[in-house]
Amino acid sequence: MAHAIGPFSTATEMLAALRARKVSSSELVDMYLKRIEQLDGPLNSIPVRTADRARDAAKLADAALARGQRAPLLGLPMTLKESTQTAGLPQTAGIELLKDYKPATDGPIAKAVFAAGACLLGKTNIPVALGDWQADSPVYGRTNNPWDLRRTPGGSTGGGGAALAAGLTPLEIGSDIGGSIRVPGTYCGVYGHRPTETAIPRPGSFPLADAPNPAALMGVQGPLARSAEDLELLFDVVAGPEVGEDAGWRLDLPQARRARLGEFRVAVMPTFPWVKPSAEMQGKVDALAGFLSQQGAKVAQAMPQVNFEQYFRDYLCLLTVQVTQGQSREEREAAAKARTGHGLLDAQADGLIIDAVGYLTLLRRREQARAAWREFFRDWDVLIGPMTLDAAFEHQTGPMRERRLRIDNELVPYELNLTYPMWAIFAGQPSTAFPAGLNRAGLPLGLQAIGPYLEDRTTLRFAQLLEREWEGFRKPPGY
For 226, phi and psi rounded to 5 degrees? Predict the structure, then answer.
């Protein structure tokens, strides 16, 4: 390609070049397919590859572009998380019993990106049942982090995070009920947006979950990219009403509250008594708070008026209800007996045996928390804080509850890494994860901006401004 477009160009730049006929879709697809073939072996980020499909789609896109046709992603290569419902392609979610499962139809996300003209390069790796901050499964094996192959790329959208960071795709769609979009973003040094809970259709994010489920709370689908501008590009393609409501509903999101960093009212998350982030991660929070103050922003430590520990317990309880719906009563009761002895984490066991009255009480507290966020965002525009406890950790195996993370000089329970992802998840708030530079070991660190319900454009704009004025994507060495 005799032009400036390369594998680390943004999707926005690639689309502009396509429309100006400075590059063809076929050239972009071939560029990425070649890189996947050359570089993905040690990463194992894209185990389901669709080269012929991508080339065929590129030819059609080039012909459409030549006729002057326009669509938001026309001719752009991209990937989808393996668990995204896509007709004729595997959707196992890393579950060995489903290794031969291929849905017959596209889910709403696949429909949207294909209708927008995207060319599918393949599907990216995930952990078993999407239940880990790693991407390791008996179906596809383990994905490694391009910054350090000994470390996790995050999960459950781990393959997508690794592929983006390594320049193997410009865009990815993930899903998030425990940080599965934003944790890979942080561990791989890219961007991820967990949308407002009702901003993007939710069916099709897991095998056989192809119909709306009014009880499926907290889980969402959303974009990952190498730039915050690209996040909003892809968000706009997939955002919209839930399946079945599109005849009478439309999504009309408010514009961003502010245009400049100095105009933002920025609350800063405190540390919590049950776990602290690493000193380097907290140092990034402090550095950003200082930078924003210098820009003229209002900056102070603040949080919604909720009981922090009760909020975490309620999240863990509701999370357990959501992710164990397929288990029998006997399985749930047996699992509930295996308590950890950690007061907060034992809320997961409560979720296994909660009764109907307890569940409705839990949902009432969730609505009270949502009201507290609405009140909070009358005075603040965004809440910033760590995305994870530290940078990407070395690969781990064994039972989840026996795993530990070393945060500075202390070993902490693995599941306490939920502390920062869960603040946005429980109440359905939008949260944009963005790069915050490297630690002393040369690994990416990342922060998040949580925003008001249905005001995704405010956190996206905040990340876009930081990308220009503070920190942005950095390419891993060797790629």
Answer: -90, 0
Alpha-carbon Rg for the chain, nearest whole angstrom, is 21
For 383, the token pair is 């809440």
pLDDT per position as a tens digit, 235-245: 999 999 998 99
Output the six-digit token pair for 231. 């996040």
239 in Cβ contact with 353 (< 8 Å): no
Looking at residue 210, its amino acid is D
Write phi, then psi, for 187 (nearest 5 degrees).
-70, -25
pTM, 2 dp:
0.97
**Beta pairing, strands 77-81 & 171-176:** parallel
Distance CA 201, CA 241 (A): 6
Q: Compute the C-alpha angle 424/426/431, nearest 5°.
A: 15
Distance CA 142, CA 103 (A): 24
Task: Report the amino acid identity of residue 310.
Answer: Q
The conformation of residue 450, written as its DSSP 8-state character, comes to E
**CA–CA separation, 120 and 79 (whole Å):** 6
* Contacts (Cβ under 8 Å, ≥6 apart) of 460: 193, 228, 231, 232, 235, 256, 432
**79: number of Cβ within 10 Å:** 31
Query: Which neighbouring-strand residues pair with 407?
Result: 410
- For the CA atoms of 454, 423, 279, 435, the dihedral, rounded to the nearest 10 degrees, stands at -30
> Residue type at 34?
K
SS (H, E, C) 39-61: HHHHHCCCCEECHHHHHHHHHHH
Per-residue pLDDT tens digits for 92-136: 999 999 999 999 999 999 999 999 999 999 999 999 999 999 999
pLDDT digits (tens, 9 = 90+) for 310-336: 999 999 999 999 998 888 888 888 888
Distance CA 224, CA 234 (A): 8
3-class DSSP state of 121:
strand
Q: How far apart are CA 40 and CA 443, in angstroms?
A: 20
